[in-house]
Amino acid sequence: MSSVSPASRRPVFRGDTLLEIKDLHTEFQVHGGTVKAVDGVNLTLPPGRTVGLVGESGCGKSVTALSIMRLLESNGRVRRGQIIFKGKDLVGISESQMRSVRGNDISMIFQEPMTALNPVFTVGQQIAESVELHQNADKNAARKRAIEMLSLVGIAAPERRANEYPHQLSGGMRQRVMIAMALSCDPDLLIADEPTTALDVTIQAQILALMADLKKRIGAAILLITHDLGVVAEVCDEVAVMYSGRIVEQSDTAGIFANPKHPYTQGLLTSIPMLGKKQDRLNVIKGNVPNPLAIPRGCAFHPRCPHRFEPCDKHIPALAEVAHQHKAACFLYPQVIAQVPDESAAGASRA
């Protein structure tokens, strides 16, 4: 087995597209029916970029990530679609092949570090185990790598901390341990599911700075799952907005914030409290996220949309380019109207 630091030997991915999700449909069988948690998602992630996947709780963000990792619960399955990573469709490979990808080529930072970390092993043991498993390193090399990673993520006295258990660390430190573990095998893709949830603003800023710095150092792509648009503005290159299992808007970060196209995205942005602006009450998006067992016909957002008109409650809008490198799935735009079946298009245009 190797005694060399595992990260030093990983070749850099040279392609233009690291991850491409094509027409992904993920569903769960529950009491009462079938939940279409992800319903036709298409997403591309180039190497070295950070893409934010944004939306309210229950929109399908985390299920998309778990579909990529093939870590769905027993009642869930990918019904249709492709998840192409470095030219290989992860949906079709065996579980043993997937185990060699998971944690090695693709790593994930889970939302709750206290539940993701094993309470009966030290954090050093848990990081080292990943290195031993995926990099064929001996125990000494794996231990050395674990301490190196704890230092890299900004944990002081890493040799001492490596011998501590998760409950002995603060929330911010546990999150750093999760990042250290995720990056210990130098992955090409890092999936971060709400990495700053429940952390105070100081620790949150440190974690975000750490992720940005690590992306520069190792050149990994990051899929950042969050509902926090402030986090998106700080670290993401591109943004995909999800609603009810579908991507409803996609653009670079500047385009999303400067000129949001979809009414849902507009509602999310106007609901953010502004410093220095006095408000008697916060802006909210009216209505509720639809019941996943009873998704409205047509555009799922139409019951809450201030701009609803025909054909919003009759047809599902396609995600189309409505401005330069800016896509939206909304019938307010002629590029989307053009894809409505002919018999409905005549009455769908607006003055």
Write out key terms for the chains shown.
351 residues, alpha/beta, eight-stranded mixed beta sheet, four-stranded antiparallel beta sheet, 13 helices, disordered N terminus
- Average pLDDT, to the nearest integer? 89
How much helix, percentage-wise, in residues? Answer: 25-40%
The shape is: globular
Task: Give Rg in angstroms.
Answer: 22 Å
Helical stretch count?
13
Strand order of the largest sheet: 6-7-8-3-9-10-12-11
- Percentage beta strand: 15-25%
The low-confidence runs, each spanning 5 or more residues with pLDDT under 50, are: 1-9, 344-351
* Oligomeric state: single chain
Query: How is the biggest beta sheet arranged?
Result: 8 strands, mixed
Number of strands: 12
Structural class: alpha/beta
Cα end-to-end separation: 70 Å
What's the SSE pattern?
EEEHEEHEHHHHHEHEHEEHHEEHH
